[in-house]
Amino acid sequence: ISLRAIRLRGDSMAEIAALRGRQISAREEENRSIVDNGVVGIFILDMDRKILFANNAAFNIFSADNDEMGGLPFSRFVTESTDQTSTAVYNAVGVTMQDAQLYLDIQYNEWDTLNGVRRITAIVRNVTAEVGAVEELAVIKQRYDMALAGSQIGVFELDLTTGASVTSDTWRKIMKIGPDEEDTQGVFMDRIHPDDLPRLFEADRRCIDGEADRSLTEYRMKFGETWRWMRSDAVITERLDDGTATRMVGTQSDVTALHHSRNALEESEKRFRTVLEAAPVGMAILDRNGNFTSVNASMMELTGYDDAEMLNNFSLARVLPKEDIENIRAAITALIKSRVHEIYRAEHRVLRKDGGERWGLFNITWTYDKNAGAYVYIAQVNDITDQKKLDQIKSEFVSTVSHELRTPLTSIKGALGLINMSAKDKLPASALRLIEIARTNADRLTDIVNDILDLEKISSGDVEFNVRSIDMRTIVDAAMTEMMPFAVTHQNRLVIEQPAETVYVNADRGRMMQVLANLISNACKYSFENTDVKIKIEEHEDVAIVYIQNTGPGVPDSFKSRIFQAFSQADGSDTRAKGGTGLGLNITRQIIWRQGGEIGFESKPDGPTVFWFTCPLATRVNGPELNDEIVARNMSQRRLKVLHLEDDEDFAEVLRAGLSPFADVTNVTRLNGMREVLDDGPYDVIILDWTVPDGDAADVLEEIGAVQPKARIVGLSSDAARKKDSRVTAHLVKSQTEMAHIIECVTDLAKEAS
Q1: What is the pLDDT of residues 265-277, one digit of tens each?
Q2: What domains lie within the chain, and their CATH numbers?
C-alpha cells in the first residue's frame, strides 16, 4: 500500500511538473510575443553592455536587420546625455546603422537569470519626432514673442477663479514693471485712472457674462507724473459646463501716439471744416457719382441752392451744362489713368437755381478713399463772372483799338511815305529829317499796337494758326534776308548753319517768321558790336531745334525768371534805349506753345546767350510750300480800275494817292454804296475793309462774284484774326503792311485778272 501510494504521489508530482512546465512555456511565449511586438525597443545586455537580444521595435528604431546588432556594444548606437534639464523629453542620443541622429528616452533595469547571471534590460523609446515638434514650437514661440515685443503688444492671462494673473515680458515692459514684481494685477489696479475704471469693469463684465464676444477698452495709465493711453482686447478662453467663465486672455498696447494723432486729425478736420465754411470761394466735396457730400456758403451762394438741397443726392450735373460734365469726366478719367496727379482746371458756366448763369473757374483734385474704395473729389470754384465781363469789355476795347487806331496809323505811315517819295527832292534836309522821325515813331507805335493786339488775341485763342508742312530752312533764309538790314544797323553779322537736307516741320509760316524776327532782333539789340549772330537748325528725335546765339552782356540772373512774362524788360531804360514793349518774348513763347513746341534759353554774363525753340517734325509733306511774298511785276500799260470799300476817308485818300499814277480808285464807305457802284465795272481789283458801319463786307462776296467774276478781291483790314476765305485772293493787315507792298499787291493782281 505504501509503495502504491508513493507511486501515485510520484505520478501526481510528474503531472504537476509537466503542467507547470507547460505554463512556464506559455508564459515565455506570451512574454516573447509582447517583447517582439512592442512599440518600444527592448534590449537585453550583459554586464559589459553588449547586445544579447533586441526586439523588432529596436531593429526598426535603429534601421537594422535582425542579425546586425547581436554582440555589438550598446554604445555603438546610444550615447547617454548628462546635461539635460528636468523638462527635457530625451536623456540620450543615438545613431542608426546609417548614422542618422536619434533622440531617445531610455530606462534601465538589472536582473539575475536562474543561473545567477547578471543582465541589463534597456527599454528605448524614440522621441525624435517629439523633440522636433518641441523645437519647432520653441521657434514659433520665439517668433511670437519677438513679434509681440516688436509691435509693443503685451499679453496677459487672468484666472477668474483665483484672481491670479500671468503676464508676458512685453506687458511688463509696456507697464515698466520689473521681473520680480509678482502682484501685477494689483499694480495695474493702482495705476489705472479712476474715471476709466468703471468703463473697463463694464466691458469685462459683458464679456464674462457672454453679452459680448470680447472686452475692448481704452483707458489711461499713470507713469510717474504723466498719463498714457492703453488699449486692452480680451476674450474668455475657458468656461465651465454651466457657462461660468474661468479664464480670460488678452493683449494690451500703448496707444498714446494714436490718441495724439487722432486728436490732431480731429483738430485738423475741424480747421478744414472751418476753412471750408469761411472760404470766400466755393468749395465742395463730391463722391464717386459726382454727388455733393459737403458744400460751403460760397458754393451755395454761387449756385443759389441751400445745403439741404445740395446734400440730398444732388449732382454736379445739376449746375453745369451737360457737355461740360462730359468734358470734366473725360479729362479727370484720363488724368487718373495716366497716374499724373494734376489739378483739373477749367472755366465753366454755372446754372443757378433761379435760371441765371454765372461763370466759375473750377479747380478739381482727387484722392483715393481706402475705406470707401473709391475716389473722392475736392472742388474749388472761383466766381469769375465779373472777370468775364471785364474780359468782354477788354475784348470790345481791343476791337475798337484794332479798327480806330490801326487805320489812322496806317494812314499816317502811308502819307509820310508818299511825301517822302514825291517831295524828297523839294524839301530841305531839316524837313526830311522831321519826316523820317515821324515815320520811325509811327513804325514804333504800330509795332506797339500790333504787339498788344497780338498778345490779346493769341492769349484768348482767337488767332487761327495755319499749320502745315513747311521747310524750316526756307523760313530761316527768309527771316535772315528780312532781318539783315536790322543787323547791319546794329553792327552785327548774321551767320546761318543748317543741314543740307530739307527739314519739314508742322508750323504756321507767318507766325514762325514772327518768332524768328523777334529772336533775331533781340539778339542784335543785346549783342556787342562787330559780333556774329548765329542761327542754327538741327533735328533731334521728333522735333527740329532752332538756335539763335549772340555774344553780349547776357541776361541778368534777377531777370531770368521773368524774361517770358508780358511787359518785362531787364531794365526800365531798355524801353527807350533798345525800343520795344517787353511783349515780344511773351508772344513768341505763346506762338511756339500753340504749335506744339518748347522754348528756352541759356546765358552767361559777358558771353554767349542762346535762345532755342522746337517745332514738331512733319510726318508727311503737304506739297509745294506757298510763298506769301508778293513779287513785284511790270505794271500794265493801261490804267487799272479799283473799287475800295473803306469807311476811314483819310486812309482811303492815302491809298488813292498811292495808286493814282496807274489806277482810278472809286471809294465807298458803306455796303449799300458799294452795291450801287458794283455794276459800274468791270473792276480789276476790289479792296475790302471787312468791318464798316452798316455790316460785314463778307456779306457781299457772293454778289461780287456774280457781278464782277474777273475781279481780284483783296482784304485790307485791321482785323488780323479774320478767317481766310477762298474767294479772297490776298489777306492784308493794315498795320502790318507797308503802302508800297499794298500797291505791288494791287498791280500784281490786276495783271493776273487781265
Answers
A1: 888 888 877 877 7
A2: 2-130 (3.30.450.20), 151-260 (3.30.450.20), 279-383 (3.30.450.20), 464-616 (3.30.565.10), 640-753 (3.40.50.2300)
